[in-house]
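Quick review question:
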């Protein structure tokens, strides 16, 4: 069973990837893709917030 630290790291890695894809989707005007990525972004943001991660440093989207 993964530790809390491993779960947090995995979520942070995914959060970073989602943000990168959101930037690309917005640039390409892929509104449906962006909306789906944003749903996952918000989920990960909530999870990381509950885990005590300081999002002001890693959140590039700020939505």
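Suggested answer, residue by residue:
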């Amino acid at each position: 069973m993964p530790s809390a630290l491993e779960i947090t790291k995995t979520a942070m890695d995914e959060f970073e990837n989602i943000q990168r894809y959101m930037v690309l989707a917005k640039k390409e005007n892929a509104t449906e893709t962006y909306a789906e990525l944003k749903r996952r972004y918000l989920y990960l943001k909530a999870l990381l917030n509950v885990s005590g991660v300081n999002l002001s440093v890693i959140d590039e989207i700020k939505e």
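Why it works: The chain is about 75% helix and 0% strand. The mean pLDDT is 94.
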